[in-house]
Write a structure and sequence with these properties.
8 helices; 2 domains; Four Helix Bundle (Hemerythrin (Met), subunit A); mainly alpha; single chain
């Protein structure tokens, strides 16, 4: 049942994206408002699907948070992107923001729901994952990922809106908020992951591909924050670093699955 609901969310996010595009194309605010309401409805449906999956896990005798495999991580990643969009950009009457953000949520859900390589079955946890650190570590990491994605999107938008100081300033403010949020949460994700690794494998750091690329991504965004402070405004080189960081996020999440390691999703 949960997979049916979550599959439906894919099309709700697609509908929201289309409405935002129509809003930008026609210049009519009604389409933008409809897009935001559809995105909000999709988010509540998305949340219900995740909760239902958790309940079904309990009924199946496993009882773990739905954060343990590739399918569940894709679903939560998409949820986190929409959640932070609603937190930071809900009040911004600009369909172009939704037109950038909602495709990310849609593509993550489409991959989770319809890719033949993604197994959506609820499965028992392996011994190393049977820990309360699972929830803390995964939530902080994926909220950090999502915030970095939004920061990169807003960074690109600041360059696009250079001819509109008012809108560009609003986007820059959202960019800074997302960058700070992502940096704090991702740092917590790395720290909690190290503690969990020590408990599960007897060491805090082992240069596993996921650990290595998480550190690389963290360093890229550290550099982005440094440049942002030094330049005093979102500069072109700052945005370029954000885009490089976005590539780092993508490889840390997707790319390392093709490398042997303890963090590769099955």
């Amino acid at each position: 049942m949960n997979t049916t609901i979550l599959s439906a969310v894919t099309f709700v996010y697609l509908a929201s994206f289309v409405l935002f595009i129509v809003s930008e194309a026609t210049g009519k605010g009604g389409w933008e408002k409809a897009g935001r309401l559809v995105a909000l409805g999709g988010f509540f449906l998305h949340t219900a699907g995740i909760v239902l999956r958790w309940v079904e896990s309990h009924h199946a005798g496993m009882g773990h948070a739905p954060l343990s495999n590739f399918y569940e991580s894709l679903v939560f990643f998409s949820w986190a992107v929409v959640f932070l969009y609603l937190v930071y950009a809900w009040r911004q009457a600009s369909g172009i923001i939704g037109a950038f953000v909602m495709p990310v949520a849609f593509l993550l859900m489409a991959y989770a729901s319809f890719s033949p390589s993604v197994d959506s079955q609820i499965k028992p946890l392996i011994p190393a994952l049977k820990s309360n650190w699972l929830i803390v570590h995964v939530i902080t990491c994926f909220l950090g990922y999502a915030a970095f994605v939004l920061a990169s999107v807003f960074g690109i938008m600041t360059l696009m809106k250079g001819d509109n100081p008012g809108r560009s300033g609003a986007v820059a403010g959202m960019l800074d908020n997302c960058l700070k949020t992502g940096y704090i949460l991702f740092t917590l994700g790395i720290v909690t992951g190290s503690v969990w690794a020590h408990m599960a494998w007897g060491r805090y750091w082992g240069w596993d591909p996921k650990e290595t690329w998480a550190l690389i991504t963290w360093l890229i965004y550290t550099g982005a924050i440094h440049v942002r402070i030094r330049d005093g405004a979102p500069s072109r080189r700052f945005v370029i670093i954000l885009i490089i960081g976005l590539a780092g996020v993508a490889f840390t999440y997707f790319g390392v699955n093709y490398l042997p390691g303890l963090h590769s999703y099955q």
